Amino acid sequence: MSLDDALVYQPPLISPRSVLFSLPPSGVGTPHQESLLSLLVRTSRAHGVSPRLLIKEVLGSADVAISKLGYSGFFRVNAGTINGLGRYADMFVSATEKLTAHQNLRHLTLLPWRGLFPYNGQGLLARHPRWCPACLHQQHLLGQDVTFPLRWYIEVSRSCTEHMCRLEDHCPYCGKTQPYIPRFPDMGICDHCHQSLAGIRPRKEISQFQLWADDAIGDMLTRQADSEFAPSADQFRDFVRERVRSMADGNRAVFCRAVGFNDMGLTGWLTKGERPSPSQFLALCYGVNVMPTDVFFESPFPSTNTGFRLLPSKLKERKARPRPSPQRRKEWEDFLKARLIADASQSVSMIAANLGVRQTCLQYWFPELCQLLSQRHKAAIKIRSKKHQAQQSQRVKEVVKIVRADGRYPSQRQVDYVLNKEGMSLAQPHLLRAYIKALGDL
Question: Does residue 339 register a pLDDT over 90?
């Protein structure tokens, strides 16, 4: 190469390397697209680390809020909303994109539907992870990574139409449910007994209605892979108004009875600005015989009108909860007031357990009393915590003096060795501050 050529030579541009492996999500643009939780577990497996460690340490380095979520309750229960449409979904999509150099991972969650469904995700996600054992068995036979499609996490999805079997949520060996974030980077084995969740189950007859519901969910997930697809509550309301006008001559009560709703079933959506839950949305789509994404076509809406269909069964079953009698509510109210007057502080959950009811029941009927009790309980916990920390700090000072009296320098290792036997550690900020102060007082 001549000198002139060297002066004009431009080295090729190399894109910056990602912190984590940029594994391609499976099934994108199909009804079986992978969930974000599944991608995170596969990524941890590729790196040979625990999914919980990956989230706490690596994703936590990208977002300090995630680093504070490394506790058991989050991994077992709350992490399910990573696949949803709330704050955790936003946080984990952003952090994962930053660390893997992926451009758009929103479609691995239900974030594309944020403009339609309630902000709190009511009725959106299943209470526990679910899976098709035949799908897991097939992945194993083909030598594929274990993946959990997003549809398995959706509450109204209850079957696998490919293998004609019900989704499972309990280990067939130990009978336990699975955490959303497992300890071992393989979602195909039980997190408790370590047995395989895969297997061949007897084929079961699935109702035509359930088949339609699963097809409808597949339609939703296929379309949401389009970055320009953004369904909204306003579009939904416009669609409902148009169908009431064209199918029931504008009579809401007639329309509601025809699709299996009560006579006032549309009032919350059309008058109060409420949003439909996923089960309500799908029930309406079934009633007017359209697929979910047909609702969000540009106006005018699709003219296909094949008449009403009555919902044959509920998409979401709810346990019957009898309304408490006025006398019973008065007894609860008196008990709460008595606890508020008493010096001892108890949490609302403890009070509810004493009464034999759910905490949410008391919060529904007596929100102000429960709020006051909760505030007092938190204040009492704070006072006890400060007192306990003061006692621990005093113990640190004593240990420093004891080590010094033995003729040894009270190094951090020496003091920490003694404290560890008593269940304490200088890794705790308040104890480290006490240790530094004790050294300064020598």
Answer: no
